């Protein structure tokens, strides 16, 4: 077996040979640490201004997002209001076609008009549909359609100029 002294002797020799070099490195590292810890140019934290600038940038971005979100909400509310207004306008602007309401042709005779009126009046009569507001409205429109189409002068006016020229409230 090989004695341990034979293995350790070269290692101890290398350490003894390089000890002054290792010692000088340690001393110079300690000196450098002492110098940097006491010198003001090394104690100043260079990241602080960048962190502050980044925080202010983030705050600006958040403010812009909040403002744009508020503007989007306001625009969507305005758009909803415009669509409501336009939908009510379109409902009002759609002219009432009395012939379609009574389900007759434009060249229908007085008998056909009266027959169609009686059928529709029976269908939408308030006694048959108690509490139904739509049925009441339809019943009123059917009565108005019959009043206009059964009168020859009003019917001619309606055919020439449309519902606005002969309607009554």
UniProtKB/TrEMBL annotation:
Positions with biased composition (Basic and acidic residues): 82-92
Organism from which the protein derives: Adineta ricciae
Protein name: J domain-containing protein
Keyword Chaperone: yes
Record keywords, A-Z: Chaperone
Residue ranges with Low complexity bias: 61-81
PROSITE patterns linked: DNAJ_1, DNAJ_2
Region (Disordered): 61-92
J domain boundaries: 97-162
Chaperone listed as a keyword: yes
Any single Pfam family the record assigns to this protein: DnaJ
């Amino acid at each position: 077996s090989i004695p341990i002294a034979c293995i350790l002797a070269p290692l101890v020799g290398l350490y003894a040979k390089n000890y002054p070099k290792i010692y000088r490195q340690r001393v110079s590292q300690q000196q450098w640490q002492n110098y940097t810890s006491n010198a003001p140019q090394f104690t100043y934290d260079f990241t602080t201004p960048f962190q502050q600038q980044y925080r202010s940038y983030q705050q600006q971005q958040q403010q812009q997002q909040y403002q744009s979100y508020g503007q989007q909400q306001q625009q969507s509310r305005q758009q909803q209001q415009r669509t409501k207004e336009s939908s009510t306008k379109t409902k009002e602007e759609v002219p009432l076609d009395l012939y379609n309401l009574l389900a007759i042709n434009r060249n229908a005779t007085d008998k056909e008009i009266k027959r169609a009126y009686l059928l529709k009046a029976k269908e939408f009569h308030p006694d048959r549909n108690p509490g139904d507001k739509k049925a009441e409205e339809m019943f009123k429109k059917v009565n108005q359609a019959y009043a206009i189409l059964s009168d020859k002068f009003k019917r001619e006016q309606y055919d020439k100029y449309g519902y606005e020229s002969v309607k009554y409230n």
